[in-house]
Specification:
The structure is a single chain. The chain is α/β, with parallel strands linked by helices. It has one domain: 3-Layer(aba) Sandwich (Rossmann fold). The chain contains 11 helices and 7 strands. The chain has helices at residues 4-14, 17-29, 48-56, 69-78, 113-125, 139-142, 148-153, 165-174, 194-202, 214-224, 250-257; strands spanning 37-42, 60-66, 83-85, 98-103, 127-137, 177-186, 237-245. It has a 7-stranded mixed β-sheet, with helices on both faces. Strand 2 (60-66), helix 4 (69-78) and strand 3 form a beta-alpha-beta unit. The termini are far apart.
């Protein structure tokens, strides 16, 4: 995995900047009821999306959390007094604190299924009954746009996608979260070029091919032979799902029946 503490300074510029953040925020807000309340943005990163969520909904009191100090510092500059440095698997909030919880571009980073379950459980715990949890799903798959670059990279090793929609939906159901909506948005500025993909390979962007892996240079050689070395292929299109928290969870209902 990339070191997101070190990535903080260049993160936004390398991932579509404000246009992508605007598209993401628009998709997320379309899944959250427009009424006053509290919103928690889990793994808020640099706060580039979090700030837009807060600005677009003045009635929402927005809080961001992130585990990487560099990311949290950048986010805190955008949202003074509203960002905490904390682990998403152990959120420092009481049960039923928030009316909405978001986790954008987080779950695909977690290789351990137990960590994914822990994050979803925490997001559900701090969410009020009737509240909405919104998360991105199928992140890696979105980058495969059918380009010549994807053809070259097709044989690369891949780890299981822990943010697959069906997996997330099952985890959510365990904590009383039921599907409530879905949306997509373009990853503006994130279309790959052969040259940028080679650079990403060498710095460990593809998690199953760490820097120094002998297979990296084999893929780099094939990518270097493609035409249009600096021509970006199609942008990815990301998927977002929302889940509404039931007033009574399945586990609570079962306990009541026994």
């Amino acid at each position: 995995m990339l070191d997101y503490d070190k990535e903080a300074d260049a993160y936004d510029a390398s991932r579509g900047g404000e246009p992508r953040a605007e598209a993401a925020a628009h998709a997320v807000l379309g899944l959250i009821p427009d009424r006053p309340g509290r919103l928690l943005d889990v793994a808020c990163g640099t706060g580039i999306v979090t700030r837009r969520l807060a600005a677009s909904r003045p009635g929402l009191r927005v809080t961001g959390v992130d585990l990487a100090p560099g990311m949290a510092r950048t986010a805190a500059a955008r949202l003074p007094g509203a960002v905490l440095l904390t682990d998403s698997r152990r959120l420092p909030f009481a049960d039923a604190t928030f009316d909405a919880v978001t986790s954008i571009w987080l779950l695909h980073l977690l290789s351990d299924p137990a960590d994914v379950r822990a994050v979803v459980a925490e997001c559900a715990r701090v969410l009020r009954p009737g509240g909405v949890y919104v998360t991105t799903v199928d992140k890696a798959a979105a980058h495969d746009v059918g380009s010549d670059i994807d053809t070259v990279l097709a044989p690369r090793p891949r780890r299981p996608a822990q943010d697959a929609a069906e997996i997330l939906t099952a985890h959510a159901a365990e904590h009383g979260l039921q599907p409530a909506g879905r949306a997509t948005f373009p990853g503006l500025g994130q279309g790959r070029s052969p040259r940028s993909t080679i650079a990403d390979l060498r710095r460990g962007w593809f998690t199953a091919l760490p820097p120094g892996d002998p297979r990296v240079e084999g893929f780099a050689e094939l990518l270097a032979a493609l035409p249009g070395q600096d021509r970006r292929r199609a942008d990815p299109r990301f998927s977002v799902r929302s889940y509404r928290k039931q007033a009574v969870t399945p586990a609570q209902a079962a306990a009541t029946d026994t």
